[in-house]
Structures are given as structure tokens and as C-alpha cells.
Design goal:
The protein has 11 helices and 27 strands. With about 500 residues, it is α/β, with parallel strands linked by helices. Helix 1 packs parallel to helix 9 (about 365-385).
Length: about 500
């Protein structure tokens, strides 16, 4: 970027409005080009720095032209990039444009990693269109299946009303990407209880939606990649099936889907093979689709949601370019968010952090990290251009995520699930049923991570304890004693 070449050759930054804000401010007289396949950008609003590393904010979708209005040196091209020629420093867009860049930041996100992707009764949720398609199909459904045990599945099983949910998970306990079995146990009663909390009415539309269906009868959304949803994505959606009850969730643990049958196939197999199993539930209706699980059970349902993680969206950029990819398929970036290809940076879901991380930070594909990486990548681009050195941003010192599951505030800090720690670590727990669940991960007397569910008010103190690695051996179990005002000890 910072080109001295006149238009139509632009300085450019690909996607990430966050990087753009920073670049546009740093270089007000230069052209910054934002190339995006989506007509909307995500804007962070109501940003609140909760503590040193914890941040809370809303994500709103706004027309991308808003950026142009606010920053006259940003130009938005609303078209997907179909090819990158890194040697020539050129990108080619679907609408036939080509642009030369001096420095480029790739922020094209990730795609849902769907199981049985080709099956028209399997759908994923990533952007506003796929969420809208999901809502439309749910409105006609009596029973759906949810496969996966991470963020989306946790949110769905709690939010869906008036529809039976068959939840198939590979693990013993729910929520494996965020919780251990103890926290899962704490949360489970919320799934069986009638939902007393009424959702607070959405004061504004955060996500704009337009319906999109692939073909008659099938449920999958059209294959175009919009901007990923963020916190509270289900606010403003009506996640209700055809029935009048609140929750009805049946969990099948330790299993995966082995095979999917369409109704005709299932009927045929029932007719021709006497030993072919019947629907394992009480409800023997004929369903549009059936899933056979690895535990031998078969369940019919209206459709299946595959909430089975994401894969970095690198495909449009690989051909002819020598990117080094991480094990998870993302573009490897160093501590300056620089990829393995000259003048190309990457941030957010598309990248794989490949620097030596702080002992209490790990990458997770989250909005929080996408925001921090976008901001930091822009700072690195500026520093590179000016020939200045730059230190790693403080936000990468400690993994910190605040979210909400089952209407509880959830704070995750550091190695909250003892990820990658040796076996000599210990766990300390405090739990009050229906109110709070506190878990800390200790190693050699030092706090390495924490899970805080409910209004514990402990996040700031624990964040400090993890960051300063103070030896806490002397405090023993008092660390979690509710009668000891732990904040007074350490603040
Ligand atoms: C349902 C759901 C709920 C979530 N909830 C939370 C949450 O509560 N908290 C949290 O922290 N995280 C949450 N996440 C994760 C979070 O949304 C992502 O980690 C974050 O959006 C990643 O940001 P990104 O900018 O890297 O990618 P994205 O937000 O996916 O943006 C990528 C952009 O690139 C564009 N693009 C793609 N390909 C091209 C191309 N070839 N040319 C041009 N443009 C292209 C897309 O249109 C899009 O605008 C959720 C995700 C989902 C799917
Ligand atoms: N509140 C939040 O912070 C929040 C909410 C929703 C989504 N997100 C983020 O959005 C992204 C997408 O969410 P997600 O829930 O799809 O991903 P995820 O990574 O959170 O969870 C994926 C789940 O799918 C399971 N899985 C993978 N392959 C499977 C298979 N073949 N069969 C059965 N299960 C399989 C994994 O064990 C894991 O439980 C993630 O990056 C997630 O962190 C975050």
C-alpha cells in the first residue's frame, strides 16, 4: 500500500474493516482498498475494555459504503477475489477488475467444515444468509439434529424452542471446545428446565438477513461466503419450530454420524431388510432424512445442522503462490502477522498463528482474536512501511474470551482447559448449583488458566494472577474460598 501510482492501481488491504480503520487513520493521504465479497462490513460497537485483556462488544453489520463515507481514503470494491498473483503483486476480482498492491492483508475468514456436505438436508451456519435459511427451515420443523459440540451447537440447543433437538456429540460431555465435564454438568440442568428467562427484545437489528434456498425440498443455503456471525447472532432471529414446548433436547454422546438416508432409501431398506433398525425414538413418523450413528442408533428428523468447526478460507489465494500452511490449513503468520509470501499479511480466521506463543495464549477462531489480529496486522504493516520495529501486541499475552452460554456469562482465561500442560497440573473448583462455576488450573503453584461461569466478579483478579505468575502455593484452597475476599489479597 501507500502507492505513488495513480488509479486504477490502488494501495490495497483486502477485507477486515478493522485493519482499514487503522491504516486509513495512519495514512490519511493514501488510498486504502477494501475488497470484499460481502455487501456488509462488521462494525464493533459498544466496545468495553472489561480488564487488561478481556473485552466486550457488540458486532453490527453496516453497509460497506459507510467506511467510504467515514474515511475518504478508503475505497471499497464489492467483489470476491478470484485470483492472487503474488509475484506480480496483483489481485483479480470476480467482476473483472485487477488491482496492484504494495502490501496486502488477507482476512477472508473461514468456511464451515460440514459433514456430508453434499447432502441437501445438511446445513451449516456461518453468515446472515445461512442463519436466515436455518430460521426458515426451523419454522417448519418438528425435530432437527445438531451434530458438533462447540460454540454453535451450544448456542443452538439452548436457543431453539418448539422443536425436538437430537444432539449427537463425539465426546462424553457437552461443550468440549469450551468446557470440561464438570462445567458441562453444571450447565445441563438449564437444558431441561423450562426457559424462564425471556430474551431481552433486540433493540436494533444487528444482522441483516435475506432468505436464500438452494432447491425445492432441500435445506442447504447457496454457496456464497458472507461475513461470519458474531456474539448474539441469534438475537433478532426467531428460532422456533412448530411445537409449543420450550426445550426438548436428547443428547447422544460418544458417537458420530455414520450414514445419512433420505426418506425413500430408508423406507426401501425397512421393506427389504427385516433386521434394518427402526427409528430409535418413540416417534415413528416418517421423516425427510435419517441419520445412522456410530453407536448403531438411527434417528429421523427434518434436517441436520452440522456445527462441526471451520476450515480457513485459503483456496482463492493458493494457486501459484507459495504460502506455507499450518496443520489446520490456515496461512501461517509470524509474530508480525506476515505470511510466508513477501508483502502479504493475514489476520483472523484465515491465518494460523505460528510464532512462539506466550505460555498462556492459544489461537481460537473467535471474533475477539479476529479483531485483535486485524488491528495488530495494520500496525505491523504501518511499522514495516516506516521501517520501524514493533513489539507483539499485549492482547497476545493472555488468552481471554468472554461470552454467554445458556444465559450464563462465561469467561475463559489462559489454559482454561489445561491445554498442552504437563500432567502435573491441578484443578481447583468452586460450584454453586444454578449460580456459578469456578475452575482454576494450577501448575507449580502458579495459576495457568480459569473458567468462570456466572457473575463471579473474579475475572480481573484472576487475569492479574495469570499474567504475573505469582506463586500462590501459600494460599492453598483459600484461593477459591468464597468467604475470603480474594480481590483484597491481590489487587
Ligand atoms: C454462528 C457463529 C457464531 C459466532 N459467535 C461468536 C461469538 O459469540 N464470539 C466470538 O468471539 N466469535 C464468534 N464466532 C466466530 C467469529 O464470527 C469469527 O471468528 C470471526 O468472524 C472471524 O473474523 P474474520 O474477519 O477472520 O472472518 P469473517 O468474519 O468470516 O470475514 C471474512 C470476510 O471475507 C470475505 N471474503 C471471503 N472470501 C473472499 C474473497 N475470495 N474475496 C473477497 N472477500 C472474501 C467474506 O465475505 C467476509 O466478509 C461465531 C461464528 C459463527 C459462525
Ligand atoms: N460464543 C462463542 O464464543 C462462539 C459461538 C459460536 C461459534 N463460535 C466460533 O465459531 C466457529 C464455528 O463454530 P463451531 O461450533 O462450528 O466450531 P467449534 O470449533 O466451536 O466446534 C466444532 C465441534 O465439532 C466437533 N466435530 C468436528 N468434526 C466432527 C465430526 N465429524 N462429527 C461430529 N463432531 C465433530 C468438534 O469435536 C467440536 O465439538 C468456531 O471458531 C467457534 O469458536 C464461537
Amino acid at each position: 500500500f501507500l502507492s505513488l501510482i495513480p488509479p486504477p492501481t490502488y494501495n490495497k488491504v483486502h477485507e477486515s474493516s478493522i485493519s482499514c480503520h487503522h491504516l486509513a487513520t495512519e495514512f490519511p493521504s493514501e488510498d486504502i482498498l477494501l475488497v470484499t465479497a460481502s455487501p456488509v462490513i462488521k462494525a464493533v460497537t459498544n466496545f468495553k475494555q472489561v480488564s487488561k485483556t478481556l473485552e466486550e462488544f457488540d458486532v453490527e453489520e453496516q453497509p460497506s459504503t459507510m467506511l467510504e463515507k467515514r474515511y475518504p481514503n478508503i475505497k471499497v470494491i464489492e467483489s470476491g477475489v478470484k485470483q492472487l498473483k503474488s509475484q506480480e503483486h496483483k489481485i483479480f476480482t470476480e467482476d473483472g477488475k485487477q488491482c496492484i498492491y504494495e502490501k496486502l492483508c488477507l482476512c477472508a475468514g473461514a468456511k464451515p467444515k460440514l459433514i456430508f456436505e453434499e447432502n441437501p438436508y445438511v446445513l451449516g451456519i456461518r453468515d446472515t444468509d445461512s442463519a436466515q435459511a436455518f430460521q426458515n427451515h426451523l419454522a417448519k420443523a418438528e425435530r432437527i439434529a445438531v451434530v458438533g459440540n462447540g460454540g454453535i451447537a451450544l448456542e443452538l440447543v439452548y436457543e431453539i424452542e418448539g422443536c425436538e433437538v437430537l444432539w449427537a456429540i463425539k465426546d462424553k460431555a457437552i461443550g468440549n471446545t469450551f468446557f470440561d465435564a464438570g462445567a458441562a454438568e453444571f450447565l445441563i440442568p438449564k437444558l431441561t428446565a423450562e426457559k424462564l428467562e425471556t430474551a431481552i427484545a433486540c433493540k436494533r437489528t444487528k444482522y441483516t438477513t435475506e432468505g436464500c434456498e438452494k432447491e425445492e425440498g432441500s435445506v442447504a443455503a447457496a454457496d456464497k461466503l458472507g461475513t461470519a456471525l458474531g456474539p448474539d447472532w441469534h438475537e433478532g432471529l426467531h428460532l422456533k419450530g412448530t411445537k409449543e414446548f420450550s426445550h426438548k433436547v436428547h443428547i447422544e454422546t460418544l458417537c458420530e454420524i455414520k450414514k445419512i438416508y433420505l426418506q425413500q432409501e430408508f423406507k426401501q431398506l425397512q421393506k427389504t431388510s427385516l433386521s434394518f433398525p427402526k427409528d430409535s425414538s418413540d416417534n415413528q413418523n416418517l421423516w425427510p432424512v435419517y441419520m445412522e450413528l456410530t453407536n448403531g442408533k438411527i434417528y429421523g428428523c427434518d434436517f441436520i445442522v452440522s456445527a462441526t468447526g471451520v476450515v480457513p478460507n485459503v483456496k482463492p489465494f493458493l494457486d501459484g503462490n507459495n504460502f506455507t500452511l499450518g496443520e489446520d490449513g490456515g496461512l501461517k503468520v509470524d509474530k508480525h502477522m506476515h505470511s510466508s509470501v513477501a508483502d502479504i499479511y493475514a489476520a483472523g480466521d484465515i491465518c494460523t498463528a505460528s510464532w512462539e506463543p506466550s505460555p498462556v495464549w492459544q489461537q481460537m477462531r473467535l471474533w475477539t482474536q479476529a479483531r485483535q489480529m486485524g488491528w495488530y496486522a495494520a500496525k505491523c504493516m504501518v511499522a514495516d512501511f516506516l521501517g520501524e520495529s514493533i513489539d507483539m501486541d499485549f492482547s497476545f499475552e493472555l488468552f481471554a474470551h468472554v461470552t454467554k452460554f445458556f444465559n450464563y456469562k462465561v469467561v475463559l482465561l489462559g489454559k482454561y482447559n489445561a491445554q498442552g500442560l504437563d500432567l502435573d497440573h491441578e484443578l481447583m473448583l468452586r460450584c454453586t448449583k444454578g449460580q456459578e462455576y469456578v475452575k482454576v488450573v494450577m501448575q507449580n503453584g502458579r495459576m495457568m488458566g480459569a473458567v468462570l461461569i456466572g457473575e463471579t466478579d473474579l475475572e480481573e483478579t484472576f487475569e492479574n494472577l495469570i499474567l504475573n505468575q505469582m506463586d500462590l502455593s501459600a494460599y492453598g484452597e483459600d484461593l477459591l474460598n468464597p468467604n475470603v475476599d480474594i480481590e483484597d489479597y491481590f489487587d
